[in-house]
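Suppose a colleague, Dr. K., hands you the sequence of a protein chain of 142 amino acids and asks what its three-dimensional shape might be. Before reaching for any lab equipment, you can write down a predicted structure in token form. Begin with the sequence itself:
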Amino acid sequence: MPVRMDDVMRLACHLAAERKMKAAVKGSAKGAMVAGAAAFAGGLLGGPPGLLLVGGVVGGLLGAWMTSGQFQPLPQIIMELPAVQRQKLCDEIFAIVRHLDWVDAAQLIALVMGNAALQQSVAAALVSFVSQQLKAEVQYGD
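The predicted structure, expressed as tokens, is then:
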């Protein structure tokens, strides 16, 4: 059976939507750097209490503020991937579902969603791809 990229991409989008997965492609590193810098400065200026107050509270709030609103739904990110990256993601997921026999995307989705182990494997492949290939942070829920 030839690899049907559209079916596999629909599966990836469906699973990401079901699990309410979001990713911050840009800005998460910057937010982490600000939080770390604030913790360092707080530690230098105020010792352990400064590290806790400035680093933990102020740094965390600044880091969160810098990255807020930059998380996008993972299905949207998947659909906007360049062709080369879409093919890489498709290959990674297809390696998990290649033993299945499906007719269309709906059947593939039903087969995977009906099997908890397959769901987990596909979700892990998605998170791995987003983390390694896109250098993004993945978040679950609203």
